[in-house]
Design a protein that fits this description.
By secondary structure, the protein is of the alpha/beta class. The chain folds into three domains: about 80 residues, Arc Repressor Mutant, subunit A (Orthogonal Bundle), CATH 1.10.10.10; about 55 residues, no CATH class; about 160 residues, 3-Layer(aba) Sandwich (Rossmann fold), CATH 3.40.50.150. It has 18 helices and nine strands. The strands form two sheets. Strands 5-4-3-6-7-9-8 form a seven-stranded mixed β-sheet, sandwiched between helices. About 35% of the residues are buried.
Length: about 325
């Protein structure tokens, strides 16, 4: 039987996708985008500057041009494309994301069959500890992880454009990480004060970011565990952004119950996650669903799943708002 060549090409592209990931990772790790931006534009110059073999560098650049990371030729010189520029070592780039996904996350996905067979996170099979403890024990990796989260949160700018914070006098960001979402909200709502709650090792990162963006005059930073410690009571708005996807249903209900206990009758909870669509549309949500499973046993959920979690926690989903990059903001309020 003749092979369907179109189907074969799709299959081969999927099979070799990891090669693309590692080629881009290697170029980023070697600093090629930064060296190109600095004026090293052919393989000989780049090889000398990066300490690599000239012939192999030429071959790597040839592939990077096909992947639209660079443009040009040996004769004209290479330049970064917009995508390549995002891999430079500079603020607001995706370099740390590329390194994290090309190193720790790539190794975890290389053992994904462990997860698919047993349900146990492949990350733990590779590194012998959970992702949370790994980040706690490795400050460099923790910093790279937080910078990755911050870089991938560029859609946060759309949150105050779609959700009104003008009537919120106090916003509490639970497991707020670097403080990027809280700073975005506070910039949009200058009358609002904010509180960020997260584990102790993330507080210095959040403090630095908030000092650089909105200052700390109207911000309180609390080192705490969302499962064990009481949350600030009576705030107008509580935020849980990209948090519940890391946990199973029972743990999510534990967190939601704590939030519900802190809420007043007029409070609201804003959950930001990638919601898996029941109609089968969208690719990032099901990809992230498995990615979270491989890393720490987490998941992305459907809207009906969130209705179920809310009902178990004395909350109700009032509405949902679509955000860029297949993200969704769910607004939950106490049950009447």
């Amino acid at each position: 039987m003749a092979i369907d060549t179109e189907a074969a090409r799709v299959t081969v592209d999927l099979i070799t996708a990891a090669w693309r990931t590692q080629a881009v990772y290697a170029a980023t790790k070697l600093g090629l985008p930064d060296l190109i931006a600095a004026g090293h534009t052919d393989s000989a110059e780049l090889a000398r500057a990066a300490g690599t073999d000239e012939g192999i560098t030429r071959r790597l650049l040839r592939l990077l041009a096909r992947l639209e990371i660079v443009e040009g030729t040996e004769e004209t010189g290479y330049r970064n494309t917009a995508a390549g520029d995002l891999l430079r070592d500079r603020p607001d780039s995706l370099r740390d994301m590329c390194l994290l996904y090309g190193e720790e996350f790539y190794q975890a996905w290389g053992h994904a069959q462990v997860t698919f067979r047993t349900g146990e996170p492949a990350f733990e099979a590779v590194y012998g500890q959970s992702l949370i403890s790994y980040l706690r024990d490795d400050p460099e990796a923790a910093g790279r992880f937080q910078r990755t989260m911050q870089a991938s949160n560029f859609f946060f700018d759309a949150v105050p454009e779609t959700v009104d914070f003008s009537q919120s006098s106090h916003v509490v960001d639970i497991a707020g990480g670097s403080g990027q979402l809280l700073s975005t909200v506070l910039r949009a709502a200058p009358q609002t004060r904010g509180t960020l709650v997260d584990l102790e090792h993330t507080i210095p990162i959040a403090r630095k970011h908030l000092e650089q963006t909105v200052g700390t005059e109207r911000v309180e930073l609390i080192a705490g565990n969302m499962f064990a410690d009481e949350l600030p009571a009576g705030a107008d708005t509580y935020l849980l952004s990209r948090v519940l996807g890391d946990w199973g249903d029972d743990d999510c209900v534990r967190v939601l119950n704590r939030v519900r206990s802190a809420m007043s009758a007029h409070s609201r909870l804003l959950i930001i996650e990638r919601v898996v669509q029941d109609d089968g549309t969208g690719l990032l949500a099901p990809l992230w669903d498995l990615h979270l499973l491989v890393l720490n046993g987490g998941s992305q959920r459907t809207l009906s799943d969130y209705h179920g979690l809310a009902a178990r926690s004395g909350l109700t989903v009032e509405r949902s708002v679509e955000l860029p990059m297949e993200n969704t903001a769910l607004v939950l309020v106490p049950e009447a």
